Amino acid sequence: MHIKQCRFLLNTLSQTVQKQKLPVTPKMRSRILINAVADTNPYNAEITINKFFNCKLFRPLIKKLIKHESKHVDQLQIMARYIAGMADNTENGLNNFRKFIARKYPLYEDIYPFNKKFYQESIESRGVIKEGHPQFEKAKEYIKAFKEYPDLSILDDLGTLTDKGLKEAVKNFYKKIKLYRNNLLEVEARRYSKQK
């Protein structure tokens, strides 16, 4: 990656984090993604931009993607603070949050290290979310939306294709896309990415 493009990515992320008032800045990387333009890994709290789109030509798109993905990071921090608030202490809360993510994405536990420090700093900066907190209801909605988030991996599509055939695989794919588009986490992230 060119130095100017790398600087552009880091500056855009920094500006977005400041504007969004995130307590902790996530890491960002650029690598080849097969079925996405950008991605946020909830396990290690890292934003990934697809290397194919990481060039000067796509800078307006990349700005929107970074805003979109940073909103997901904010949502994850709120969920971590909520789960930590439900536990008897922060250590147990972070362990419960790690397990919560691993239930939805079991492969993450084997591939990525859990970024405990990132979520710990977020909790220390903003505190836990307990009943009566202004973000309590929003955090519950995020937890529900995260549980309902569809599996968009190619492996899931290939499994449906081999088990049920092409017609069912296509129907399943479009059903997942509809669930994805209407999921609260995605709706809010898309709305945030369009703001000036």
Overview of this protein structure:
The chain is mainly alpha-helical and 196 residues long. The protein has 9 helices and 3 strands. It has helices at 3-20, 59-86, 90-104, 106-111, 116-126, 136-148, 154-164, 166-182, 184-193; strands spanning 27-31, 38-41, 46-50. Helix 1 packs across helix 2 (59-86), helix 2 crosses helix 5 (116-126) and helix 2 (59-86) packs across helix 9. The chain is globular, with a radius of gyration of 17 Å. The protein starts with a helix and ends with a helix.
The percent of residues in helical segments reads: 55-70%
List the uncertain runs. Answer: none
Overall mean pLDDT stands at 90
Radius of gyration: 17 Å
The neighbouring-strand order within the major sheet is: 1-3-2
Number of discrete helical segments: 9
The coarse overall form would be globular
Most strands sheet:
3 strands, mixed
Strand content: 5-15%
Distance between the termini: 27 Å
One letter per element, helices H and strands E, the order comes to: HEEEHHHHHHHH
Structural class: mainly alpha
Query: How many beta-strand elements?
Result: 3
